[in-house]
Every structure is written in C-alpha cells, then in structure tokens.
C-alpha cells in the first residue's frame, strides 16, 4: 500500500505556526513525529530547538504510553506516580498495563493508592486494587466519607477495610448526612469532633448527632 501524505487544512502558514505555538513542549515533541510538515511548523515555534518529552506527561496518559512504545520503541517511564495518575483519572486499563509492564516492580502500590481511588470515586479501580493485593487502611474509608462516595464506603466496609472516628468527622465536615447515617448504623465510632464539626457547619447533621448521642464537648452550650 502506498504511503499517504497527511493533508493539512488549507490555512495560512502563520495560522498553523500560531496553533502549534500553543502546544506544550511534550505535545510539540509528539507532533514532530506525525509528518515532515508538522515537524517544520514545530521547529518554527521553538526556533529550531528540539522539544523534549517529559516523563511526567507520559506517565499521566495511557495514549502517550502506547505512542511511546509503538513509535519510539523506548523503555517505558513507568513508576509509582504512574499508578497514582491512572487511579486518579479512573484509567483501569492504564493501571493494569502499567502493573503488567513495569520492570523490577517499577510501579509499586501502597495504601495511598486505595485512598486516591476512594477519594476520586472509582469503585471498579478500588475493587481491582483490593482483588490484586493492594493494601488499604482507615484512610480509604475516611476519604470515601469525605467525598460522599457511599458505594465505595460500603464496598470497603463489606470487604474488611478498617475505619475510625475520622470517617464520621469528615462526613459531617462535608455535609454528607446519608454517609454519616450509614457509618453509625454499621458501628463506625464517632467522638466530639463530629459534633464540633457539625455545630459549625450543618444544622441537619448537628441535629442527627444530638439525637443519637454524639459526645458534646460544649457541655455548657
């Protein structure tokens, strides 16, 4: 099959230079690999300085990882922050790819990874993490409570994730009454900090705390 030449829309060269001038350095470096015309336009905007590809940009993009592997054929810049970026953006396939292709455990994970999944509201990713041995701790529940992610909180609790008084305090702080009710119904402890937080922020939660015996540090109020 004959090679097809990329046909750019008919625009004055100055406009194309303006468009390429708005690209960040990594995007310019990628664009240079598209065709000779794009390479020339990029070099005009960089004054013939070859733009660099920053590893931090590659780590945060599954499509860039694929491009890096297929076009450049270079070792992939995968590390701990690759996992964090994949989890934070909800890219399950990216996370699976990173874990499968990292060399010498170059993409480790820890309790903070589960915290990010819970905080970001990505239930499928949290399930994948837990099913594949990623550790979690109390922060998973407190982060889910703070963000108002009931389904994630339920999953974590049903699968043995610990919680503490911070979960109730964070739910109160963010005004999540349904979350607080779930926590208390299922035995999550609370303390005076839940009352204190509700007292200064949310009347409905304060009333719930009072009605259900939350410790009151304002004993004279």
Automatic annotation (TrEMBL):
Q: Which residues cross the membrane?
A: none
Q: Which InterPro entries match?
A: Ankyrin_rpt-contain_sf, F-box-like_dom_sf, SecEffector_AnkRepeat
Name of the featured protein:
F-box domain-containing protein
